[in-house]
Design brief:
With 429 residues, the protein is of the alpha/beta class. The chain has 13 helices and 18 strands. The strands form six sheets. Strands 15-14-13-16-17-18 form a six-stranded parallel sheet, with helices on both faces. The chain has a four-stranded mixed sheet with strand order 5-10-7-11. Strands 1-2 form a two-stranded antiparallel sheet. Helix 9 runs parallel beside helix 13.
């Protein structure tokens, strides 16, 4: 969809070029997009153009000069974010990506396509965490990643929420276009995706920490140029190995208060948000790995832990920071508590110091554990990192290593999570 006027970019476009042709490091944004698509093997392109569309046609032509095959559809009047789909329906493959011309991305789209096919989805939304979830369109999903609800940024949010942002990149089956009326404005989310949600159709969320940003303002363009120059855009593509700083939760990110079983008990460590901000800017992924035996003890349920984690993500989002993933183990093998839940009183591969949660993240996000770190407040955390082959940092908050369950020596000993992150990142300078 490349027909936007780019009103917020008037200082750069001067109403002489359409928004998708705005320059980043001397190259049109639309060309950055085309090159990203080509790297994922996508060479058949349909461009929906409108305002100053001839500039795009003159630059790209039929695409042969770029190793592409490009077709065009010109909107004579604005048709909304999806109205053109009714017109280009005969040109579409059975499955197609839909994206907008004001987004910079570098994504392994083959991974997203595999997910889409495995789920047999009608529509797949690319979702990710960002630093401003409070003013972003959010997605709510079930445990199978099926989309349950689209939460508009215009809604009043008086609840805790997961930082799961709709990034505006979609993989769709062409059959959803069959009943679309021509010559009408159609909104993709309101008129198509919400209808699929309400009808119980197969609409799924594909989660990834890869780089994708709306650059519809001058400030965002400048920030994107900095990201391109630093190599940060390409480095996040999951075709490349990633690095992570794995973080324990209780006693590391939040103040330790025994077994936390409700959101009211959760309070961030004073320096946690600043530490995670530095991880977000560093190129490392920030991933929480936590044992939550309160479920096995019968003190709360899995849904309660998920609500606590929604509070954690909401509080961090208010500070402009985010976690790339959260994993927790609800199990505990030892029996003997009167209120315990026997369904979770089992041995497992996910409970620290076992490394099932880390292995899951390493597979999903292509993480090289040998260049990653584990930060926590117990010897269990340090042993977990050593079992996984990461470097380790013990923080002197929470238990401060006083559990003494394992005779292990961390690579770093730090006052708190912020000092740990500073020292980890300082080793790279």
């Amino acid at each position: 969809m490349a027909g936007g006027k780019g009103t917020r970019l008037a200082g750069l476009t001067q109403d002489e070029i359409p928004k998708p042709m705005v320059s980043l490091l001397g190259k049109p944004l639309l060309l950055w997009q085309m090159e990203a698509l080509k790297r994922s093997g996508i060479t058949e392109i349909i461009l929906v153009i409108g305002h100053l569309g001839h500039v795009i046609e003159d630059f790209f032509g039929d695409g042969r000069a770029f190793g592409l095959h490009i077709q065009y559809f010109r909107e004579e009047k604005p048709l909304g974010t999806a109205g053109a789909l009714a017109h280009v329906r005969p040109m579409l493959e059975q499955t197609f990506f839909l994206l907008y011309g004001d987004v910079l991305f570098d994504i392994d789209l083959r991974r997203m396509e595999r997910f889409h096919r495995e789920k047999r989805a009608d529509a797949t939304l690319f979702v990710h965490p960002n630093a401003h979830p409070f003013d972003s369109d959010l997605v709510e999903t079930d445990e199978e990643q099926r989309v349950l609800r689209l939460d508009s940024k215009h809604n009043v949010r008086n609840h805790w929420y997961e930082n799961l942002v709709n990034a505006g990149l979609y993989l769709l089956n062409s059959r959803i276009c069959e009943d679309l009326p021509e010559q009408e404005r159609i909104d993709l989310e309101r008129d198509i995706l919400l209808r699929l949600c309400r009808g119980g159709s197969g609409i799924y969320a594909y989660y990834s920490p890869e780089y994708i940003k709306d650059i519809g303002t001058v400030d965002r363009i400048r920030a994107a140029e900095d990201d391109l120059k630093s190599g940060g855009v390409a480095a996040r593509n999951l075709q490349k190995p990633q690095r992570a700083i794995f973080l324990d939760r209780d006693g590391t990110i939040n103040i330790k208060r025994g077994l936390i079983s409700s959101p009211e008990q959760f309070e961030l460590e004073p320096c946690a948000a600043e530490a995670i901000r530095k991880i977000n800017r560093s190129g490392y992924l920030a991933i929480v790995i936590t044992n939550q035996p309160s479920v096995a003890r019968g003190l709360c349920g899995v849904k309660d832990i998920e609500e606590i984690h929604r509070k954690m993500q909401t509080l961090l989002g208010r500070e402009g920071v985010f976690l790339d993933a959260v994993r927790f183990c609800p199990h505990h093998p030892d029996r003997g508590y009167p209120e315990e839940n026997p369904a979770y009183k089992i041995p497992c591969h996910c409970r620290k110091p076992d490394i099932g949660m880390l292995e899951n993240c390493a597979e999903q996000y292509h993480i090289d554990l040998s260049v990653s770190w584990f930060v926590g407040d117990t010897t269990v955390d340090i042993q977990t990192g050593k079992n996984a082959g990461t470097k380790t940092a013990l923080v002197l908050t929470g238990d401060a290593g006083s559990d003494r369950k394992y005779d292990v020596k961390p690579d770093l000993i730090c006052e708190n999570i912020l000092e740990a992150v500073d020292k980890i990142l300082g080793k790279e300078r």
